[in-house]
Design goal:
By secondary structure, this protein is mainly α. It has a domain of 87 residues. Helix content is 38%, strand content 9%. The chain has a two-stranded antiparallel ribbon. A two-stranded antiparallel ribbon has the order 2-8. The longest helix has 26 residues. The chain is globular and about 60 Å long.
Length: 517
Amino acid sequence: MKKNILRFSGKVFNCVTLLFVIAGCSDFLDEEDPSNLTPESFYTTAAHAESAIAAVYADTRFYGFGAGIFSSNWQLLEAPTGTSTTETAQNSDLNNLYSLTYDPNTGHIQNWWRRIYRVVSNANLVLENVPGINMDESHKRRVLGEARFLRAWAYFYAVRIWGDVPLILLPQSFTSEDFSPGRTPREEVYNRIVEDLKVAEAAGLPRMDESGRVSQAAAKALLSKVYLTMAGFPLGLGTQYYELAATKAKEIIDNPGSIDLFETYGEVHDERLKNTVEHIFSLQYNAEVAQNPMGNMFPNFKPVTYRGPSGTGSTIPTIQFYNSYEPGDLRAKDQEGYFYTTYYTNGSGEPFDLGAPYIFKHFNVIANGTFGVEGTARDNLNVPMIRFAEVLLIYAEAENEVNGPGQEAYEAFKRIRDRAQLVTPGVGTYDQVTFREAIWRERWHELCYEGITWFDMVRLRKVYNSLTNGFDDFVGHVNLSSNQPLQEKHLLFPLTMTEMINNPNLRPQNPGYAGLQ
């Protein structure tokens, strides 16, 4: 019987901590008096294994946690891209991200470090302790495969954000020899990510999992994404890794099962369709535990939801990026694509003009209301991490790098444009260079505001220029949101000051940032 990982993990998140201080959750722990539990006595049943992996899932929701007034952790990956700006300017840390003046004390950066390593820590506890539980072996393999995936997912963020980072593979305590670890070379971190994902891929997971748990398709998709990143900067492993990325993505494309593009963009953010079709892996949200955390995309005090005029507008599109979509691109069409320029008063009343474009991609019409239908006030929409659209674009890009613009790469690319109702020039009109940039352009326009664009900028060392429709070198590109140029130092974020003070083995600081060199 399937369990809904959202409800299950939410309950466990309140029951299981790193020290296993557990109280008030006897429905999970009938075998022991909760006040007497220790790590040794906890890991004794299959139910304990489920509780432990559910806690790791719950930890991944740090992505949407608050980062001070009118801000969220996910904005770390959006504000520096230049595709968004703010209407409020109330949060100094967020302002520094927009203006490219962030430093080792920026709150978002501190939050990401702490929470990524919490995911790693709890995943390590699962991997260390679940093998000793007397339980069904296939069930055990699946739990361990999920833990491997989630650890890889966390480290994939860490290595792209900071470069060399501590690679911690065992539970830690104050008596651990590596309690104050140094930084591991990033290639070694990437190799461990690949190893974890290969184990997850072979762990007997279902092809897709509508409960929201990790699936085999998720492992394949993330592995293809990791290979694509390793092929580019900073590792620069080139053709062999582009080929690996293309091969892994094609395993999904050639044997899709239930996986496909949604027919409409509205379905991409329909809570009734989460964990199905296009959504290969998502962070799970349910109003009983935690509501969708993308509300800082709502316009600043314009009544687009049942709450009335209550939004912050701290992440909104730059007008230049919005205008860079091709004429007729359905993704830029009001309320049909990824943006909206009009909505309904208090979510369900009379239409009104918003006066500017806003991000519709994460807007839940069921929760917030639509014309004549009041919102439920319960935002159960997930946050997508990997969509099939990205898999198609990974394949097209990687295959082009290996073999040029062949028919199969072209067809994957064209599927994205067909849904946008765009006319695509024939395959013979492209050479490798023009096809490469056409794919990059689709990545910017299809995957915007999903925490992907910044990492594309870093691995490509290129940035989409929404005024010229071309690509600039990363260093020297001027973000139109702030009129500030990107510098060499921005290829990595700084390590947090607090962590470097607490652990001198993390020093020196990343190049270009002041503090504790």
